[in-house]
Amino acid sequence: MSVLRGVSFALTERRVALVGANGSGKSTVLRCLNALVTPTAGRVLLDLPGADGSPGGTVDPARSPAVARSMVGFVFTDPDAQVVMPTPAEDVALSLRRLRLPRAERDARVAAALDHVGLADRADVPVHDLSSGQRQLLAVAAVLATGPRLLVLDEPTTLLDRRNTRLVRRTVDEVRVPVVLATHDLELAASCDRVLVVEDGRVVADGAPGPTLTAYRDLMDAT
Ligand SMILES: Nc1ncnc2c1ncn2[C@@H]1O[C@H](COP(=O)(O)OP(=O)(O)OP(=O)(O)O)[C@@H](O)[C@H]1O
Ligand SMILES: [Mg+2]
Predict the structure, then answer these.
(1) Which of 165, 172, 160, 153 has the alpha carbon at shortest distance from 73?
(2) Could you give phi then psi for residue 71, rounded to 5 degrees?
(3) Nearest ligand atom owner, CA of 37
(4) Secondary structure of the chain: what % helix, strand, coil (to 5)?
(5) For position 137, what pLDDT does the model report?
(6) Strands 15-20 and 46-47
(7) Which residues line ligand 1 (CB under 6 A)?
(8) Paired sense of beta strands 194-199 and 15-20, if any
(9) 1 CA → ligand 1 middle, Å
(10) DSSP 18-73
């Protein structure tokens, strides 16, 4: 069974949102970006500048999954799929491990990442004592701390209150790297530069948030 069919687009905007019905294919598109899903036909190419702004070259995640995963920071919808260590500080430290930083720098990055999402005072509590929204923020913090060259967020605000939703929106605005996210939060989608509406494995509207989100609302309300 094909999940996606005839999906073809080039993303050059800094903030791109995918919206669409449950099961329409948004997460599948995102998963192609870091080789969690490999297309059976067609291909995905990443062309991301280097960390210092230098040209990064083109990477095909299907051919070079490890390279793609080192470039793409992926935040899952379900934080429990991602948060694996006993405490927040250890979890962020784990995601930093492959950077092989000196201990002091690693600790500073862990502290800054937790502080950014308001979890500085929860650094050493058991992860299971965090609320589910706090775990979602921890997952975002752990991925951001690694300094990804592309940030992919799959429904990053589903568990969050209004204030923390705003924090995530501000983070999306402020990170310097491109962001591709899937969301049912139409305010978050509206704050992006471009919105793609996914329906039944196809892109049925694509462009500025105003008209595409109107098209999405009409689509949802009509059925
Ligand atoms: N590995 C898989 N094998 C078979 N079918 C899959 C697989 N992954 C996803 N699907 C199916 O593909 C379709 C699209 O799923 P996807 O997770 O991309 O939807 P989505 O748009 O992210 O939905 P939601 O808003 O509920 O998160 C669904 O019908 C799903 O059941
Ligand atoms: Mg999904």
Answers:
(1) 153
(2) -95, -30
(3) 1
(4) 45, 15, 40
(5) 94
(6) unpaired
(7) 3, 20, 22-28, 182
(8) parallel
(9) 11
(10) EEE-TTSSHHHHHHHHTTSS--SSS---EE---TTS----EE-TTT-HHHHHHHEE
Atom of ligand 1 nearest to the CA of 37: 1
The two structure tokens encoding residue 43: 């291909």
Mutate-to-test residue for ligand 1 from 1, 2, 3, 76, highest number of ligand atoms within 8 A of CB? 3
Answer whether residue 53 shows pLDDT above 80.
no
pLDDT of residue 7: 86
Residues around ligand 2, an ion, CB closer than 5 A: 27
Q: Which atom of ligand 1 is the closest one to the Cα of 77?
A: 27
Domains of the chain: residue spans and CATH: 15-222 (3.40.50.300)
pLDDT of 3 over the 90 cut: no
Helices marked H in 43-161: 65-71, 88-96, 103-116, 132-145
Measured from the Cα of 155, ligand 1's closest atom is 27
Atom number, ligand 1, closest to the C-alpha of residue 201 = 14
Q: How far is the CA of 156 from the centre of ligand 2 (A)?
A: 11
Query: Which residues on neighbouring strands pair with residue 15, listed in sequence order?
Result: 179
Is residue 83 predicted with pLDDT exceeding 90? yes
pLDDT average, residue stretch 120-127:
96
Kindly tell me if the per-residue pLDDT of 77 is higher than 90: yes
Atom 19 of ligand 1, residue of closest alpha carbon = 23
Task: Say which ligand is closest to the CA of 185.
Answer: 1
